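Can't paste images in this forum, so I'm doing it all in text. The chain is below; anyone willing to post the predicted structure tokens underneath?
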Amino acid sequence: VTVDAASLCIKSGNAVMLRGGSEAVNSNIALVKSLRKALIASGLPEDSISIIEDTSRETAARFMKLNEYIDVLIPRGGAGLIKSAIENSTIPVIQTGTGNCHVYVDSCGDLDMAEKIVVNAKTSRPGVCNAEEKLLVHKDVADEFIPRVVKSLREKGVEIRGCETAVKLSGDVKPASDIDWHTEYLDYIIAVKVVDSIDEAIEHINRYGTKHSEAIVTENYSNSRRFLDEVDAAAVYVNASTRFTDGFEFGLGAEIGISTQKLHARGPMGLKELTSTKFIVYGSGQIR
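Text version of the structure:
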């Protein structure tokens, strides 16, 4: 992340101030030292890349007020860091995503496909923001699908929590609490809910989701279009895993983060999203 962020900023013509967590401060200092040497060797200003070595919250709070020197703040990390930046920064903030991501298995979904997508989205790399955290299943396929997908998830070491109906359908499902529907686990844990309709699925996602990545598994074209149109998220999928929300996977190259807001960028942020527009006008005496 440190090298990606610095490289993207330099490539797009920006200077960058980096601040990491205390657990990686020595590694980040070493990386920035190497990057600054590379800048000198390339004839670029050494101070185009700098690092704040003090990882205290007090320093971070002061840093968020440096409007005179910093154009934009991009917090990457957990929900607490992002919330703090949004609430306390006087610098414009680009909100990058916590990912409370959902997969909804529709009544018209291919259940073999759905099982593969759910297992991949949850277990291929559970500690990242595009991993699936919630599974919604239409009531018409719940009796068949929940026991089989729970079995597959348990084989991967996943703890399953669920609504009352899901608990009744499988002895491996623990009762979920309301906090579960809000939680980004970043772990081998998933919460499962049986819904009555696509309307309930969309309402649930828009209520509890973090506007990151959401997926539907369906063979019904109308339902897929409704899901794409009505779910509020940076990336919305039909019959594919949420794990594809990534700059490289989208063909954008490295990313500095995945924006979950709507202005000025949304989704994976690469070089283009780190630039702004300047209008340049050549005249020959025109007046207005």
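The first strand starts at residue 16 and ends at 18. The chain is about 35% helix and 15% strand.
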